[in-house]
Write a structure and sequence with these properties.
- The model has no long low-confidence stretch (mean pLDDT 97).
- This protein has one domain: TIM Barrel, CATH 3.20.20.150.
- It is α/β, with parallel strands linked by helices.
- The chain contains 10 helices and 8 strands.
- An 8-stranded parallel β-sheet has the order 3-2-1-8-7-6-5-4.
Length: 260
């Protein structure tokens, strides 16, 4: 059975953020991830990780103004300096929190920016981030996101992600494969994960439709969990879903699949 990490940006939101670490541990999780740590000091978050014996699995590079709808700036040609500063900030947090990977969100392609310019900017920023992270022993992952939930998101399918990875040419750049997003964009989940296992360093889950917990939609998660074991996936699986009702009620799937 894969190792599951609670996504604290989407689970246990009935409680304040820093209280969610204990809630995740009480629910049987041993790892956590979330969108961003930057509203808190790294030392404060580290305290809650250690107090609850949790592994910090993942967070994202700074991604612009999230409250105003920005979803990353890595493909924005006029934000390169800001992106570089964000890499340094993320590294400073990761050194304290101990995570061995950081995710890069490509962002929504800006109006007036053609595809070639967006791609060139994205590749350059990924090269910069991959090199900086490699120097401190941290892997860089990038995530393809469906364009139904985020219209215009630049990186939106596995083939595109693999092509970008090849053009970057860094041994320190990997894919974050989100099962929910890729079910919407392309399907063929089991074969894709098996074929590109060496390029995938992190997986996230939610069911479809609705982006709720496993068992609420069309995806056969019992099969996929067994499949991940059979192909030898060694990474974490982040539980990045919106509970259908409450977080606690929605966690029955963990016991159903003998995950805790």
């Amino acid at each position: 059975m894969p190792r599951f990490a609670a996504n604290l940006s989407m689970l246990f939101t009935e409680q304040d953020f820093l209280v969610r670490f204990q809630a995740a541990a009480n629910a049987g999780f041993h790892g956590v991830e979330y969108l961003f740590p930057y509203d808190y000091s790294a030392e404060e978050i580290k305290h809650h990780l250690e107090a609850n014996k949790l592994t910090q699995v993942l967070f994202n590079l700074p991604a612009g103004d999230w409250a105003k709808g920005e979803r990353g700036i890595a493909c924005h040609p006029d934000r390169v300096e800001e992106f570089h500063a964000g890499v340094d900030k993320a590294i400073a947090y990761a050194k304290v929190l101990g995570n061995s990977q950081i995710n890069c969100l490509a962002g929504i392609r800006p109006q007036g920016v053609d595809d070639a310019t967006a791609e060139r900017t994205f590749i350059s920023n990924l090269k910069y981030a991959a090199d900086k992270l490699q120097a401190v022993g941290i892997k860089l992952v990038m995530e393809a996101i469906n364009t139904r939930d985020i219209p215009g998101f630049y990186l939106n399918n596995t083939a595109q992600a693999l092509a970008i990875q090849d053009k970057v040419g860094s041994a320190n750049l990997f894919l974050q494969y989100d099962i929910y997003h890729m079910q919407i964009m392309e399907g063929d989940l089991a074969r894709t994960m098996q074929t590109h296992l060496a390029q995938i360093n992190h997986i996230q889950l939610a069911d479809n439709p609705g982006r709720h917990e496993p068992g609420t939609g069309e995806i056969n998660y019992r099969f996929l969990f067994d499949h991940l074991d059979s192909i030898g996936y060694q990474g974490w699986v982040g539980c990045e879903y919106k509970p259908l009702t409450s977080t606690e009620a929605g966690l029955v799937w963990l016991k159903t699949h003998n995950a805790v």
